[in-house]
Structures are given as C-alpha cells and as structure tokens.
Specification:
alpha+beta; single chain; about 10% strand; about 35% helix; three-stranded antiparallel β-sheet
Length: about 150
C-alpha cells in the first residue's frame, strides 16, 4: 500500500465510493488488528518518492495542511508505519532475512535524518519537513547532503 495516496484520494473518495464503502478504504488499522502484514511503499513516480509524506498520512490521516481528516479510525502509530516501510516491505518481497532491519548479517540500508522523527516531542507536521542528510545502501554512502553537519 502507498499511504501517500490517501493525501490525494481523500478529496474524491467519498463522492466516488459512497459513504458506506469509503469506510473500508485505506483500512490500515483494521488490517493490523486482523494480523494482516501491512507493507508500505511510495508508488513513485505516481506519488512523491518522499516516504515522510506517507508516514504523515498513515499516522494522521489528514491532508498536509491538517485541515481535513479522512476515516481517522484507521490511523496507525508511527512505529507501525515505520515497520510497514521497512520490515514488512522486506517480508513482502521475501527478503526479510536480508533486509528491513539493522543487525549483523543484514544489508546496511539506512538513512540519516536531520532530526529524530521518533522523539516524544516530534510532531506529525515535522515529518513533512524531514530532510535526509545521508543515505547508505548495502553499507556504502550513496547520498551525502551538503547540509550535513
């Protein structure tokens, strides 16, 4: 699933699906509550490649301005959303013994961010402004921001 789709689809979904069926769209909380593996992606180039938009959508189910909410009963936590982008996505491609976690024996794929998105003081809105300072793929730096301290 691509949670960033919610940010655009929320503008037309109820009109096209109707008030009864729309309740079952983007049913992330329901899936997790029924032990369905929820794997996230960005769906680039249809949507932005920026995964932080998807994290924001998954945990708030609000438009980026924070003025409209869509089926809030289906929100998930930030940790659940991060898991969906990492370990669950590795599981979905049958690579869970090689990817999705930082531990010995796994490829070292990770990003260094400009702030701790999991901090108790971090706000969902801050996710939309998160910057990647460095990207490491298979243990090698493939991106290094000039903004890196």
């Amino acid at each position: 699933m691509q949670p960033s789709h919610l940010l655009t689809d929320m503008n037309w979904a109820e009109a096209r699906l109707g008030p009864d069926r729309v309740k079952y769209s983007y049913a992330w909380r329901s899936f997790l509550d029924h032990n369905v593996v929820l794997a996230f992606g960005t769906d680039y180039p249809v949507e932005s490649v920026n995964p932080f938009r998807g994290l924001y959508a998954a945990i708030t189910r609000q438009n980026e301005a924070g003025t409209k909410t869509y089926q809030p009963q289906e929100k998930i936590t930030l940790n659940e959303a991060i898991y969906a982008y990492t370990q669950a996505s590795a599981f979905a491609e049958n690579q869970e013994k090689l990817k999705g976690r930082l531990e010995p024996g796994f490829v070292a794929d990770f990003a260094v961010l400009d702030h701790d998105i999991t901090s108790p003081t971090a706000t969902p809105q801050e996710l939309l402004h998160t910057k990647v300072l460095r990207t490491v793929l298979n243990g090698e730096i493939i991106y290094f921001s000039k903004e890196t301290p």
